Amino acid sequence: MSRSPSGGKEILVLTVSLVVTAGILGAGTYFMRDTISGILGGNRAVPGAPNAADQTGRAGQGGGISRGERSLVPNASAAKTAGVNAYGQGDYAGAVASFEAALQENRNDPEALIYLNNARIETQTAYTLAVVVPISNALDPAQEILRGVAQAQDEINQTGGIGGIPLRLVIADDGDDPDTAQAVATTLAADPEVLGVVGHFSSGVTLAAEPNYRQAQLPLISPTSTSLELSGRSPYLFRTTPSDRFTATALTRYMLNDLGQTRVAVFYSGASDYSVSLKDEFMTTAFSDGGAVVGEFDFEAGDFNASQAVTQALDQGAEVLMLAANTGSLAQAIAVIQANQGRLTLLGGDGLYNPRILEQGQANAAGMVVAMPWHILAHGQSPFAQASRSLWGGDVNWRTATTYDAIAAFIAALQTAPNPTRESLHQALTSANFQAEGATDPVRFLPSGDRNQAAQLVEIVPGSRSGYGYDYAPVP
Predict the structure, then answer these.
(1) Over the Cα atoms of the chain, what is R_g?
(2) 4 lies in a domain?
(3) Can you give the pLDDT of all 476 residues of the chain as single tens digits?
(4) How far apart are CA 71 and CA 84, in angstroms?
(5) Are 143 and 173 in contact (CB under 8 A)?
(6) d(Cα 268, Cα 323) in Å, to the nearest integer?
(7) Phi/psi at 169 (5° precision)
(8) What sign results for the dihedral spanned by CA atoms 87, 91, 94, 100?
(9) Are residues 361 and 463 in the same domain?
(10) Residue 64: which domain range?
(11) Burial of 418 (C-beta count, 10 Å sphere; 0-12/13-18/19+)
């Protein structure tokens, strides 16, 4: 995944009751009424207003780090504010009571659940992992990621911990900014309690921060970064989301084998690490498997015009339009979908798994096939899906699942040694026999650190789940 504008990717999310003010939301703009967290529009700037009695660190600017003594998520409730104040003063019993009250008011707040579990640990020995999220720049995906780690922590601690030792989580906000991410990585690397890190959100930011972890020999698992530049980059870097190579392969095979179509025009953002990576991998796979790329169109070109680009693709004999859009180029991708008017088959990467596609694309987007890491409708009866519904009150999306898998991998690695260290975790994760029980599939890593798992294809079809008249549904 890459950040906006140079690598961010939109989210598909639904809110049951996210802690966001009505003024930010606007009435009735929730996506997927039966899913959690997410405001129409996906990644968005979050004002850096102070909250939790000004116990936010640098929330809104990135760089805040907390075990429970400050709220990094804006607009904390009074109960949550009381919880972070109590935690900061070492009043763990008071913090537990306040965080429990905060969750009674809003069960969909993963930060509160993480802090609650941390407060329950008090000062006893615990294994510590950190999670780095883009709170101050992309709150919705940050919340989805936090739900994955919160659910995994809650489950393991409720069952007695790891060999009797509980799991403590540190939350860090990098604002999806490379410079801030490097500073956060340096701070976490210097903390001897931190045995492993889950993050970062976008490919570009993960690329920027990765050397800091490698130097400290601190294992890093990204649940959302997909760029091929990360493959084999460091023995301490792993991913629980399939790389762009898996996504490109799934889309190419669907185009050639299922659709029987070979001529494709590719749209991408030259400013996005993710978009360029997916475009390059798709073109390579298409050429090698007998397809023909008849045109390339950069959303960032100064003279880009969606209608003219679609007309040119038609004139060049395209049968398919493949949209490798990221967050920053989503508006251009929607313009292409609208200009196409259903004439050519549409394919896309997971940047197009987004409520705006359904809302604005409508009938023009029907039939578009998107490749993504995971979809709950393909695993609706799994224990993870049922547990997440019970915990959060609705369905979660793929970022929550892949982040849950990242914590599951660390937990499995922590269970391999009586006195785990960063190096023992690294050795466990790189073992040829390593396997962890993930959300719905086992977590295994290739020698490159990539997840050994195929992408999931979903198709836009008429439906009522989203509230827009169209839904994403798994391709049979």
Answers:
(1) 21
(2) no
(3) 433 333 443 333 333 333 333 333 333 333 333 344 332 222 222 222 222 222 333 333 567 999 999 999 999 999 999 999 999 999 999 999 999 999 999 999 999 999 999 999 999 999 999 999 999 998 988 999 999 999 999 999 999 999 999 999 999 999 999 999 999 999 999 999 999 999 999 888 999 999 999 999 999 999 999 888 999 999 999 999 988 999 999 999 999 999 999 999 999 999 988 899 999 999 999 999 999 999 999 999 999 999 999 999 999 999 999 999 987 899 999 999 999 999 999 999 988 988 899 999 999 999 999 999 999 989 888 999 999 999 999 889 899 999 999 999 999 999 998 889 999 999 999 999 999 999 999 999 999 999 988 889 999 999 998 899 999 999 98
(4) 7
(5) no
(6) 6
(7) -115, 140
(8) positive
(9) yes
(10) 44-241+384-443
(11) exposed
Question: CA 336 → CA 244, 268, 323, 343, 370, distances in Å?
Answer: 22, 11, 9, 11, 15
**Is residue 282 domain-shared with residue 169, that is, in the same domain?**
no
H-helix segments, 341-464: 355-356, 383-392, 398-414, 422-430
User: Cα(470)–Cα(143) distance, rounded to whole angstroms?
Assistant: 24
Q: Give helix 398-414 / helix 422-430 axis angle, nearest 10°.
A: 110
Q: What are phi and psi of 162, to 5 degrees?
A: -100, 100
Q: Is residue 286 part of a domain?
A: yes
- Judge contact between 341 and 318, C-beta under 8 A: no
pTM here is: 0.82
Residue 26 buriedness (CB in 10 A; 0-12 / 13-18 / 19+): exposed
Contacts of residue 35, Cβ cutoff 8 Å, sequence gap at least 6: 12, 13, 14, 15, 376, 394, 395, 396, 397
Strands 369-372 and 292-298: what pairing? unpaired
Total domain count, the chain: 2
Contacts of residue 270, defined as CB under 8 A and 6 or more positions apart, other chains included, come to 276, 298, 299, 300, 301
Q: Are residues 175 and 198 in the same domain?
A: yes
Q: Could you give the CA distance from residue 148 to residue 398 in angstroms, rounded to a whole number? A: 10
